[in-house]
Amino acid sequence: MSAVALALATNPGGYLLVLAIVLPVVGMLLSLVAGGRNAERIALALMPAGLGIALVIAFGVWREQAPLVYILGGWAPPLGIALRADGFSAVMLVTAALVVAAAGYFARPLFATPPQRAEARAPLAFWTLLQGLWAALNMVFLGGDLFNLYVALELLTFAAVPLVCLDGRPETLRAALRYLLFALIGSVFYLLGAALLYGSYGTLDIVLLAEGIRAAPVVAPATFAAGGLMTAGLLAKTALFPLHLWLPPAHANAPAPASAVLSALVVKGSFFLVVRLWFDVMPGLASDAAMGLLGALGSGAILFGSVLALRQRRLKLLIAYSTIAQVGYLFLMFPLAAGSEPWNGQAWNGGVMQALSHAFAKASMFLAAGLVAESLGHDRIADLRGIGHAMPMTLFAFGLGGLSLMGLPPSGGFTAKWLLLQATVEGGQWFWAAIVLCGGLLAGGYVYRVVAPALAASPLDVRASPSRGREGIVLALAIAALLLGFAPPGFLGLLQVGRAAIVP
Amino acid sequence: MTDFLLAAAGLILLTVAVGLARILRGPENVDRTMAAQLLGTGGIATLLLVAAATGVRGAEDVALGLALLAAFASVAFVNSAAPRQDDDP
Amino acid sequence: MTAATLAGLTGAALVGLGVYGLLVLAHPLRKLLCFNLLGSGVFLMFGILARKGGAAGFAADPVPQALVITGIVVAFSATALAVALLLRLFETSGTVTLNPDEQRPE
Amino acid sequence: MSAADVFTVVAVSAGAFFFLAGSVGLLRFPDSLTRLHALTKADNLGLGLVVLGLLPQASGLLGGLKLLGVWVLVQLSSATAAQVIAQALGRRRPPP
Amino acid sequence: MTVIEILDIGLAVLVLGVAAWTIAARELFAAAVGYVAYGLLLSLVWVRLFALDVALTEAAIGSGVTGVLLITAAMRLRGTDPPQASEQLRPMVRVAAATLCIAIAGVLAAGVLMMADPGPTLAPDVARHLGETGLGNPVTAVLMAFRAFDTMLEKVVLILAVIGVWSLAADDAWGSVAGPRPLAHHQGPLTFFAQLLPPVGIVVAVHIAWVGANEPGGAFQGGALLAAMAMIVLMARVVQAPAVDRRWLRVVLVAGPAMFLLIGMIGFAVAAGFLAYPDGIAKPLILFIEAFMVLSIAAVLPLLVIGPPNRPQAGPP
After folding, report:
1. Are residues B23 and D35, on separate chains, in Cβ contact within 8 Å?
2. Where are the domains of chain E?
3. What end-to-end distance do the CA atoms of chain B give, in Å?
C-alpha cells in the first residue's frame, strides 16, 4: 500500500488517539457537573491515565516505526476527519501529559476548595480549564485536518486565556484580554489560509493536501498566500518576535502552574502547527527566502528576548522573556531542515529536542518561581539573596532548568543546540551558529543574575517553606529536561517517524 | 415576474438604506436603535422577495427566525439603558 | 459578475476593513467589532468556495457551509469571552485601555 | 400573466410604495418620536402588503402560514419596540 | 446588466458601507448598532449564495445574539470612548495600516477572481454518502456525521467559554445568579412581549431544529432561537437566571456534547468506530443527539451573553 493509502485507513492502535482526546474532554465535562472538590479529584485521577495512554501511543509509534492513524466515524478523508500520530506527535503527547500532571499536582494547595464551601470559583475554573487545555493540546498534536486543527486552536485559546486572569486583578485581566485578541486574530488568519487551500485542492486533510500540491502541474498562487497567512497567524499565537508583545504580561502574571503550562506547552501548540504546515502540508514549497525569514525572526527573538530577560526586575517576567528567546531557537529548524537543502535530520531533531527540553525546563523554572513567590510573598530578583539556603532544592531545580536554556551539557537543551550547531555546519549556514552561541551566553547571563545572589549566605525572611512534595515535582521536571540529554539514538529515531513518508 | 420581484426587493433595500443612513447618524442612541428596527422589517421583506424570485428553498424559516429576533436590538438597548437597582435614589 | 464572485470580493474587502480597524482603533470593543468583520469576511470566502463547488444536485458545496456554521459559533464564543473580560476589566480598574504603559509599575 | 401574478404585482408594488413613504417620512419629520411612529406604521403596512402579495407564490399551505407568521411576529416586535423606545424617550425627557 | 446583478451589487455596497460605518462611527453605541444591521444584511448575502443554513445561523447569532451582547456592552462602557490622546495614532501610521490592508484585500480579491469555476468540491462525495446517514439536508449530514468530531468539539468550545466567563466572577459572587445586577423597572409592554413571544418562538425553534434533518435548519439554529427566547424573558425580567452552581444547570450545559460522546463511544462497540452510526438507525440517533444539543445551546448562549454572576451572596443590598 502506498503511504497515502496508509494515511487514509485506521490502523491497529489507532483507537488510542481517540482516547487521548476524549479522556480529558470527558474529565472536563464530568468535573463541571460534579462540581466542587470533585473537579480536582477527577482531574488528578485522569492525569496518570492520560499519561499511560500517551506512553502507549509513543511505544506503538516507535515499535511500528510508522504513524498511528484513526479515521473518525469511518468516513475517510477528504469527506471525513483523520487523527494521526507521528513521532513528533507522540513525544509531544507524552510531554504534555507529564507537564500537565506536574502542574496539576503542584497546584493542589493553590486551588483547593476552601473547607467551609462546597464550591469556589477559582478551583472549579482551574481544574476544568486545565483539562480543557490538555484536551486541546492533544487535538493539536493529533489532528490531521486543517479545520479540525482550527477548532483545536480555538479550544486551546479558550482554555488558556481565563487561566491567565484567575486572580481577577486588573493587570491580569488586561494581559488576558490582549492575549485573547492576539490569539483570535491569529486563528482568523489561519482559517483564511485554510479556506484558500480548500478552494485550490478541495480538501483540508493534511496528507491529501500534500499529495494534491505535489501532483499539481503548477502550484496555485493561492497556495503561497495560504502558507503566508497561516504562518503569520500561527506566529502571533506562538509569540515569535516581533509578535511577542502579549506574552510577557500574560505568562508572568498568571498563577505559577498556569504559567508553566502556558510557556511549556501552549506556545508549542501553534509552533507544532507551523511545523506541520511547512514539513507536512507543503514540504516542497518552502522557499529558502521564506525559511530564512523564519530563521531571522527566530534569531531576533533569541537576541531580543534574552537581552530583555537580562533587564527584568521580577523573576517571573525574566522567565517569560526567556520563553520568547527560547521560542526563537525553535524557528532555526526551518532554514536548516526545510527549504532547498537536502533533508537534514539533525536540524529536525534539534528543533524537536528544543521543544521538549524547553517544555520541561521552563515548566520547572516557572513552578520554582511560584514556590519562591509563595514563600517570600514577592518575586523581586533584587531581594532573592540567600534564597538558595532557604530553599535549596527549588533553587537547584531552577539552576538545572537554566542549564538546559543555556545549552550546557548535560541537558536536553545541550543536545538540542548541539544538533542545531551540527546542522549549521553541515548545511554551511554558519551565521545561525553564531546566534545559537550568542543566545547561550545571554541565557547564561540571565540565569546567573538569579542564581549567583541566591547562593549568597544572607539571612532571608521566609514566610513558609514549601512542601517537600511540591519541591520534588519542580525537581523532577528539571531532571526530565536533564535526562533528555542522555536520550539514546532510538529516541532520536522516534522523532523522525513519519518523516520518511513525507520527504522522498 | 422574477425581475419584478427582484426590482421590488432592490427598491425596498434602497429606501431602507437611505433611512439607515439618516438615522445611524443619530444624534441620539434612540434614533440609532430605530435604524436597526427599520432594517429588520425591510430586510425581511427583501429576503422574502429575493427568495421568491430565485426559488431558494427554506427562506420562510430564515424570515421566521429574523422576525423572532426583530425586537432584539431595541429590547437590549432599552434594557441596558434602564437604571440598575442600586442606582435608584 | 456572479453573486458568488461578488460575495467573494465583498469578503476580501471586509477582511481588509477588519484588519484596518484592528490596527488603528484603540478601544477593545471596537477591536472586537473589527474582529467580527474580519471573521465574517473569511466566512464569505468560504461562501464563494461553497457556491462555486455546487455540484451533484446541490446548489452549493455543503462542506464549506458546515465549516462556516461551526466558525460562526466559535467566533461568537470568542466575542462573548472577550466582552466579559472587557467588562470585568472596566469594573475593576475603571479603564479599558490595553496599553501596558498604563499598568502600574512593578 | 395569471390573475395570481397580477395580484402579486399589485400588492408588492403597494408594499414597496409604503416602504418608500416610510423612508421619506423619516427624512422629513423633525424629532425622534414622530419619526418612530411614521416609520413603524409605514413599514408594517409595507411588509404586510409584500407578504400578502407573495402568498399566491408560497409553496403550499405551510409556506403561506409561515409567511403570515412572519408578518404577525414583526407586527408584535415593532409594536413592542416602539412602545419601549417611546418609554425610554419619555423617561429621559419628561414632558414639559 | 440584469436586475439581479444590480441587486447583488447594491447589497454588496450596502454591506461594505455599513461595515465601514461601524469602523468610522464616533460613538461606541453607534458602532454596535451598525454591527446589528450588518449581521442582518449579511444573512441576505448568504441567501443569495444559496446557503440557507448559514443564513439562519448568521441571522440568529451574527445579528441577534451577538447584537444583544455588543449593544449591552456598548451601553455599559459609555464614556470610555474616545480613548486618551496617548492612544491616538499618527497619520503616517494610519496610512501605513491602510496600505497594508489594501494589499491584503487586493491579494484576496485577485484570488477570488482567479478561482476556478466550477471549483474543487466535496459535493459529489457528500451526495454519494448522504443515503447512509438517512438525512436529506447535506449540511446537517456534514455537521452530524462526516465531520461530527468538529461539531462535538465546537460544543466543548462553548462550554469552555462559559467556564471562562464564569471564572471572571468576583469570589463572593460565586454560587449566585448569573448576570449583572437586576433592573429597577419592569416595563409593561416588554413584560407582555416576553410572555407572548416565547411560546411562538419555541414552536418555531423546535420546527427549525426538527426540519434540519431534511431542509435548511438544524440543532444549532433551533437552539440559537430557543436561546433568543430565553434571553427575552431574562431581559424582561419575567424569570431570573439560575444560580451558577445549580446541578441541573450544569447537566443541561454538558448534555449535548456528553450525549454526542456517549453515542460516539458506543460506535466503537456496535458500528465502524468512534462517532460512527450503525447502519439503518443513523437518522434517529442523529436526531436524538440533536435534541440534547438544542437544549445545551439554548442554555449556553444566554449564559454567555449575560455574563458572570455579579451579586454577592450575602443577600440583596
Report:
1. yes
2. 1-88, 122-317
3. 61
